[in-house]
Write a structure and sequence with these properties.
This protein is an alpha+beta fold. The protein has two domains: 64 residues, no CATH class; 126 residues, no CATH class. Helix content is 45%, strand content 23%. The protein is built from eight helices and eight strands; from the N terminus they run αααββαβββααααβββ. The longest helix is centred in the N-terminal third of the chain and has 26 residues. The mean pLDDT is 83.
Length: 197
């Protein structure tokens, strides 16, 4: 057998386990973002490249609008378990999240700060999305973390987008409209035209 043939056999053999596990996950019905065994296998293989187990991959990697995305908690875990990088949440409120990123080594060195604010979300047209209305603190964290990883430690997660970012590309539920005035004041107006603060 030639070297190329041996490698081809090894590649086929390496797919047997993910294919078998993927079938079980797809048939379980526990993961609503997957419809086929192939989609489950893609999630498992993508997670394997990040060091995730098959179940961690199924739980933390999502198919959103035809793209693979990782949940922010899994991305946070990848950074926290990385021997080269770390992060610290400096501020986390419904209005802003500020995260400092650190390079580990002989001495811990801050390499940058990622900040995401309610005003940033408003500029990007995100504040009228249901997740932003219901879980603003979580969404601030997801955006600040994802930006910081891309800016300061991209090699730790290979440029993945977080699930929350892709969900922001989906149409907004317009039961309530949030507006920010030039002075920075925030108002909410429901479909009946009633203004709330």
């Amino acid at each position: 057998m030639t070297k190329e043939e041996t490698q081809e056999v090894m590649e086929i053999e390496s797919l047997k386990e993910p294919m078998s596990i993927g079938r079980i996950f797809a048939e379980s019905g526990m993961f609503p973002d997957i419809k086929t065994q192939a989609q489950a296998v893609v999630k498992i293989l993508a997670g394997k490249e990040l060091g995730l187990s098959p179940f961690e991959s199924m739980k933390n990697i999502y198919l959103v609008s035809g793209n693979l995305a990782i949940q922010s908690n899994a991305l946070a875990s990848l950074i926290k378990t990385n021997k080269k990088y770390d992060y610290k949440v400096e501020t986390l409120t419904d209005k802003e999240c500020k995260i400092s990123f650190w390079l580990l080594g002989d001495k811990k060195e801050e390499i940058g700060i990622s900040e995401f604010t309610f005003q940033d979300a408003a500029k990007a047209g995100l504040v009228n999305k249901e997740n932003w209305k219901s879980y603003p603190k979580n969404m601030m964290f997801a955006r600040a973390l994802a930006n910081g990883v891309r800016f300061y430690c991209p090699d730790a997660a290979c440029g993945w987008h977080v699930q929350e970012e892709y969900e922001d590309l989906l149409p907004a539920d317009r039961r309530e409209t949030i507006t920010i005035t030039p002075e920075g004041n925030i108002t909410k107006e429901d479909n009946n035209g009633e203004t709330k603060l």
